[in-house]
Amino acid sequence: MKNAKNKLGGRGRIVLGLTGPIASGKSLALKCFIAEGACGLSADAVTAELLTTPVIYHTILRKFGSDKILTNGLLDKKKLAAEVFGSPAKRKWLEGLLHPQILGRIHSLITKSRKKIAVVEAPLLFEAGLAECFSFTVCLAAPDKILEARALSRGWSRAQYRGRVKAQLPAAEKYDRADIVLENAGAPRELAAKIKFICRFLEGTAKR
User: Fold this and answer.
1) In order of start, what are the domains of the chain with their CATH numbers?
2) CA–CA gap between residue 175 and residue 20 (Å, rounded)
3) Which range (73-87, 150-164, 175-189) has the least confidence?
4) Contacts by 171-179, CB closer than 8 A, 24 or more apart
């Protein structure tokens, strides 16, 4: 992945990898970065786009079978996730197929942007070994009770939430691996203020 870092970076541009535990506020943080003038991208959105391309679509169908992962003729991300959730081998195969494509698409979008700061929301950034793709990694943080309460308020069952948490790195390990940890246990405006400060600092750094 060391080569990928060069692809996503580039002279005069800072690329942040944004991650965090489930319900830590990654989507909100990405919106805040965009509001501050950054080029904001979602790895999940890029993945959803790739799943509609003929080559990816048919390759996945051949692997898993249309009866398991289609909804109205389209690849269903939830069904696909359920199919690979309990199988490390299937998950590794899918990541091997998608990750190079995702990174290539993200690289293309960043290089087309004239903005000096780019932020890529990647929920499984550390799990996928992508940390070296970025100039810095930023991890959202909140107490476990708050994270679980947020997930339940979004319609998750407690069993679903805890099952997905177990499939990811422990939150504490994500915090330890990140270059920057942003506490997000308060109001959205508090997170927005922290992100504004980071952007102003990075803008000054990029100009040097």
Assistant:
1) 2-203 (3.40.50.300)
2) 8
3) 73-87
4) 171/21, 171/24, 171/141, 171/144, 171/147, 173/126, 174/19, 174/20, 174/21, 174/126, 174/139, 175/139, 175/141, 177/126, 177/131, 177/137, 177/139, 178/19, 178/137, 178/138, 178/139, 179/136, 179/137, 179/138
pLDDT at 9: 60
pLDDT of residue 164: 87
Between vectors from CA 112 to CA 205 and to CA 11, what angle results, nearest 5°? 35
Residues 138, 16: contact at Cβ < 8 Å? yes
pLDDT in tens, 95-108: 999 999 999 999 99
User: Which H or E run contains 139?
Assistant: strand 136-141
Give the global pTM: 0.89
Residues 32 and 140 sit within 8 Å (Cβ to Cβ)? no
Could you tell me the two tokens for 83?
């199919």
Token reading at 77: 């991300």
Q: How many CB atoms lie within 10 A of CB 205?
A: 12
